[in-house]
Amino acid sequence: MADGKTAASARRPSGQRRADAQRNIDKILTAGLKLYSSRPGVSVAEVAEAAGVGRVTLYGHFPSRTELAKALMDRAFEETEAVWQAVDTSGPADEALDRVLREQWHLMERNRNLRDNVVGDVSPQWLRQRHDPILRRIEALITRGRDEGAFRTDLPLSWLVTSLYSLVHAASDEISAGRLTTEQAPEILSASLRSLYRR
C-alpha cells in the first residue's frame, strides 16, 4: 500500500507534488503554532497528529525538533511584524511605546508558551537575533524619545533596548510561575519601563 502511494506520488507532475508539499508544510506550521502557543510540553507527534500528517511526512519537511521550532518561531515573528505595521506610533514617543506594549501584549502572551516549547531546541543567541527586527523598531522609538527629551540619555541605548527585552520575558516567566496574571502584566511592565526610561 505504502509503495503504491509512493509510486502514485512519483507519477504526479512535479508542480503538483510541490503544491502538496507546501500544503503539508502550512498545515504543520498552523497546527504547530496553535499547539505550541497553547501550553508547554508539546511533542512532535502531537503536532503531526493535529496537522493530519504522519510523523514521516513531518520529519521530511522538518528533520529535527530544532528545525520545526525555528520554523514556528519564524511564522510567529512574521505575524508579530505584520501587527507592528498596524500600530500607531505617531505622537510623543513615550506614549507610542506604551501603546505598542499594550497593543502587542496579546502576541507576547501567545508567544509565552511558544517560547517555553522551543527554549530547549534553539539557542538564546538565535532567539535574541530573531527578535532583532522588532527590537530595531523599539530602538527607533527610544531614540525618538531621547531626542524629544522624554527618555534618559545617561544610559547606553543598547542597554535600554535589552532591558525591555529582558523585562518582557521576565513578565512571561512570572506568569508561567503563577506570580503574575496576564491582566496585571501589561500595566506592571509599562510602569517598570516608564520608571527605567524617564529622565
Q: pLDDT under 50 segments (min length 5)? A: 1-8
Order of helices and strands: HHHHHHHHHH
Any idea what the radius of gyration is? 21 Å
Strand content: under 5%
Question: How many H/I helices?
Answer: 10
Helix/strand/pairing category? mainly alpha
Count every beta strand, where a strand is a DSSP E run of 2 or more residues. Answer: 0
Termini separation comes to: 71 Å
CATH class of the largest domain: Mainly Alpha
Structure, explained:
- The protein has two domains: 2-61; 65-197, Tetracycline Repressor, domain 2 (Orthogonal Bundle).
- By secondary structure, it is mainly α.
- The protein has ten helices and no strands.
- The radius of gyration is 21 Å and the shape is elongated.
- Helix content is 78%, strand content 0%.
Write a concise synopsis of the structure shown:
It contains ten helices and no strands. The protein is an all-alpha fold and 199 residues long.
Question: What distinguishing features does this structure have?
Answer:
single chain, 2 domains, 10 helices, elongated, HTH-type_TetR-like_transc_reg
Helices, strands, pairings?
Layout: H1 2-11, H2 14-38, H3 44-51, H4 55-61, H5 65-86, H6 93-118, H7 124-130, H8 132-148, H9 157-176, H10 185-197
Helix pairs in contact: 2-3, 2-5, 2-6, 5-6, 6-8, 6-9, 6-10, 8-9, 9-10
